[in-house]
Amino acid sequence: MIxxxxxxxxxxxxxxxxxSVLPRAIAWVSTASSTVVGRYPPILSITLQPRSDGVTLKxxxxxxxxxxxxxxxxxxxxxxxxxxxxxxxxxxxxDEFEALGLEKADSETISAPRxxxxxxxxxxxxxxxxxxxxxPDHVVWxxxxxxxxxxxxxxxxxxxxxxxxGVFGRLAAEYTLVDNIFTTPLPDELVEAASSQRASRLDGRxxxxxxxxxxxxxxxxxxxxxxx
Length: 228
Prior knowledge:
- Helix content is 16%, strand content 24%.
- By secondary structure, the chain is of the alpha+beta class.
């Protein structure tokens, strides 16, 4: 199959990208609304799409634009359900921490709160915001001012114990648990076996299940129905 991108509408392009660039990093971005409801610092970038109507800017982007700060919180498998439920399009007057039962923790250099249960959080100030027309998408670049790491994950020589994180990533409109680690080269027989093995499902659904193109999904990543 050869696909000419000139023939694709934005939703079709997005479905192909999210099903091909795998796994994608997943994290929570916490902000504070402006109405209150190092020498070479590391840089993080995030992409923010509009709400499911394709026009209205998400509160996260509006807050970042108006306050010039945000926190990137790494999520673990124990928080997967809350991450998924956070895709619901809450009203702008709703405190999503409260709605999702998440505990706030103060940041050290910015007013935006951290998620207390996150194993790693990055306090960021906006470096630049790049619009991505013709859609109202934006790429936000942030300069990291503080990194919060759970004590048991911080190893000697400044390393992170990645095997103890229990992180998960995005696979198209679903998720994958990072539960194995390797370096290369691997034994040929292991590579051959892994190459022909279909990924197993942890949720008991049919092997060909996908929420894409159902009421559970929108190209924005948001949903207007409360996730079950």
